[in-house]
Amino acid sequence: MGPYFRSVAQRPRGSLVEKIRGEHRGHLSRLAIWSAVCILVCGTALYSAWSMGTPNGSWTSFLAWMCGWCLVNLAICGLSWYGKPPGDLRKLREFLMLNEGLNVGYLGVGLALGLSSNAPVVQGAGWAIAIQGVALLVLDTWLLMKLPSGAELEV
Question: What gap in Å lies between CA 95 and CA 104, rounded to an integer?
Answer without folding.
Answer: 14
